[in-house]
Amino acid sequence: MAELIANLKVVRDKINVASARRPLEYKYFEPRLVAVSKFKPVELIVDAYKAGQRHFGENYVNELAEKGNHSSILEMCTDICWHFIGHLQRNKINKLLTTPNLYIIETVDTEKIASALNAAWSKCRTHENLKLKIMVQVNTSNEQEKSGCERTQVCSLVQYIIDNCTSLEFVGLMTIGMFGYDVTKGPNPDFLCLKECREEVSKELGIDSKKIELSMGMSSDYEHAVELGSTNVRVGTAIFGERPKKDIS
Ligand SMILES: *Cc1c(COP(=O)(O)O)cnc(C)c1O
C-alpha cells in the first residue's frame, strides 16, 4: 500500500510538472489522471481512492461490473468515476451501462456501437436524464489489429453521434497509439494526429476545440502527452505495478 501511494504521488507530481511546462494555450484545463486498474484487486483501488484518486479505468466489462458492484467499492468509494477504456461488444452493453458510477465510455468507434449505447442508455432508469459521456476512439497509428475508427471517419462519426444519439454526450477523442515510440525522436505522431483530428472536428462541426477532450498518454509517455495537450492520461503500470502479460485491445 505504501508503494502504491508513493507511485501515485510520483505520477501526480510528474503530471503537475509537465502541466506547468505546457504552452499558455493549453492552460485552460488541468489534465485528469485516470488510474487504470485492470487485473488489479479491489483492495488496491480502495487504497488509491483513500489517497485521493477518483477516476479509474477498466478494459473488460465483466471485470468492471464486478468491481463497480463490489461492496467495498460501493461503501468506501462513493464518488468513484469509472472510465471504460476497452473494446466494447454489443452484447455487453447492458452490463456496462448498469454498473454503478460509470462516468464515461472512451472507446466508441462505430455508428453501430454509438446507436446501441444510445438506445440502451435511454432505457436505463439508473440516471436522471443525464447524458452518457462518450469519447470517440481513433486508430491514429492505422494498425489493423487496433480498435478505433479511421482518422478519415472521425468527423462523420462525431456528426452522426450529435445528430442521432441524443442520449450521448460527445466529450472528446481518444487514442492508444503505437507502442514503444521513442520520444527523443520528437513529438509522438499519434498524439499529433489526434490533435489534428480535433481541429478537423472543431472546424467541420463548429465546436470550440477547448470543448473537445484528448485522451492520450499511458505509463510510458503520459508526461509527453500532457505537454502536447492531453486532457486525460490513462496510467496503469506506473501506479499499480506490472500486470500479467495478456491484454490490450
Ligand atoms: C492498459 C491500458 C492503459 C494503461 O497502460 P499502462 O501502460 O499500464 O499505463 C491505458 N489505456 C488503455 C486503453 C489500456 O488498455
Automatic annotation (TrEMBL):
- What Pfam families does the annotation carry? Ala_racemase_N (PF01168)
Can the keyword Cell membrane be found in this entry's annotation?
no
* Molecular function terms, GO-annotated: pyridoxal phosphate binding
- HAMAP family, from UniProt? PLP_homeostasis
Q: Which UniProt keywords apply?
A: Pyridoxal phosphate
What family does the Swiss-Prot or TrEMBL record give for this protein? Belongs to the pyridoxal phosphate-binding protein YggS/PROSC family.
Q: What is the official name of this protein in its record?
A: Pyridoxal phosphate homeostasis protein
N6-(pyridoxal phosphate)lysine modification sites are 38
Q: Outline what the protein does.
A: Pyridoxal 5'-phosphate (PLP)-binding protein, which may be involved in intracellular homeostatic regulation of pyridoxal 5'-phosphate (PLP), the active form of vitamin B6.
What this protein needs as a cofactor is: pyridoxal 5'-phosphate
Q: Which residues form the Alanine racemase N-terminal domain?
A: 30-244
